[in-house]
Amino acid sequence: MAAGIFLASDLSAADAEDVLALPARAPDGLTVQGQVRARAEEIGGQFRPDAAEEDLMLSLRTTIQVEYDGGHWQVGGELWDSRAYGESADSSAGTGEVDALALVQAYVGFDLGGQADTHVTIGRFTMNLGSRRLVARQSFRNTTNAFTGVNLQWSGPDGDQVALLWAMPQIRLPDDSEDIRDNAVRRDKETSDLQFYGGSLTKTGVLGGSLQIYGFGLSERDSAERPTRNRHIFTPGLRAHRSPNQGQLDYDVEGAYQFGRSRATSAPTDLTDLNVSAYFIHAEAGRTFDHGWTPRVSIDFDLASGDGASTKAYNRFDTLFGARRFDFGPTGLYGAVGRFNMISGGARVEVKPDTRSDVMMMYRALWLHSRTDSFSNTGVRDVTGNSGRFAGNQFEARYRRTLIPGRLRLDIGMAYLDKGHFLKAAPNAPQPATPDTGMSISISNSESSRTLSSDQQSRSDYAAAAWNGWKHSGCSVISLITISVAAGDLPGTIVNR
User: Fold this and answer.
1) CB 363 within 8 A of CB 342
2) Alpha helices in 224-364 (DSSP H)
3) H-type helices in 282-394, by residue range?
């Protein structure tokens, strides 16, 4: 059986309520907040065609934010130091894992008067908009998106909201594999060759929830110094949302269409601008039951268009600066599924055994939207379309418990990708290594490592043997252990996502 497995153990900080102690003479309005996170990841039975079949990585993220609030104005900055260690030379780790000493925020903010709450931010900033599927400040990922420009946030007395922005997205550096492995410090940059703009309107009290209308534009200019797909696209969308609540039905329905022009690749020789026509749909309906562990059951559907065989149009949806962990499972060394060329349906169950813990389980079936495009985030492709549409089944489970309120949380998770015909038969699909006739087991900890042959193993080691066998049969196995120490609640951070 060809399959993929993801296991996660995440020990991290929950939302912190108080801030780092400051000297007695520190001025009123000064806030210092910080977090340190360490995460270990392992993957085996790689699904990507051009990455290590097995990989191990330790990622560290240290953040510190300082802000002074002068009443109607604020000035602040935030530093993220994101590093990775121990990954293979052909690891899939990239700018999503490494961005050392990155100044992700350096801003001045102003509160404008009136009955409504209006805030303007100028400088470099991070932000979440709407569902976070198109614009997000990352939490699970080791690095985050940031923007340099201006944004306006307006909130009415009834909860209605308006957001407007123009910005130059931050280009994370380094972006070459050698410097990424070395955790080289390079100053992230922004350029007028890449501009992002748009806005959203959220109206509350619609169908028992809220209705959001938005539109985002991306303008990109190709150059010899930075080859790109020369994207000039606009993405209007609509979202209807009702948050989960005990004893009630909830829903989240969102759709966006993308048009403009883009090139198929970033190759210097590709100078053909294609008309863009792409879209994505998310639909989710659930119910939270008002008894016991307050279980919530939901069904989910996602579709993101893929590029067709036509040479005159480009149809692969671009998720812009969105997050995906909350819809499609863990990212990092895993991250098989994203909002590109996929159709997926599934079901989710969530329970809360007590006030400090929660459990989530989810199943997804996965298909390609276009037979001739690469499947989602895997890079596996059959340009002839002869490998079919079925990509496989993904199973995910997660347990979280707050150990120290406001400081420390344990997060243990598992995702299993059972590869379908496409991920096994496509021309560039990685083929699983042939297992040894005497299955070997690796048992290791921080102090020692030893290997046992299958004929020596004890019954207590059976699970380890099965685990290693899954890896050799084509399973993607990834383990994460994350320890975070936090002081203060970082603005904009959504710990659960």
Assistant:
1) no
2) 325-328
3) 325-328
Domains of the chain: 4-430+473-487 (2.40.160.100)
Give the number of residues written for the chain.
497
pLDDT digits (tens, 9 = 90+) for 143-163: 999 999 999 999 999 999 999
Q: How far lies 96's CA from each of 91, 172, 323, 331, 332, in Å?
A: 12, 9, 11, 9, 7
For a pLDDT cut of 70, what percent of the chain falls above it?
A: 81
Question: For 19-42, what is each residue's pLDDT tens digit?
Answer: 344 444 567 899 999 888 888 888
Higher per-residue confidence, 397 vs 19: 397
What 3-state DSSP class applies to 421? helix
Nearest to 65 by CA among 104, 13, 28, 8: 104
Report which of 409, 389, 384 is spatially closest to residue 485, judged by C-alpha positions. 409
Which parts of 263-328 are beta strand (E)?
274-288, 296-304, 313-314
Supply the pTM of this predicted model.
0.85
Decide the pairing of beta strands 99-112 and 117-125: antiparallel
| C-alpha span between 495 and 497 (Å, rounded) | 5
User: For the CA atoms of the chain, what is the radius of gyration?
Assistant: 23
Cβ contacts of 114 within 8 Å, gap of 6 or more: none
Q: Give me the pLDDT at residue 413, please.
A: 77
Angle, CA of 489, 415 and 399, to the nearest 5°: 45
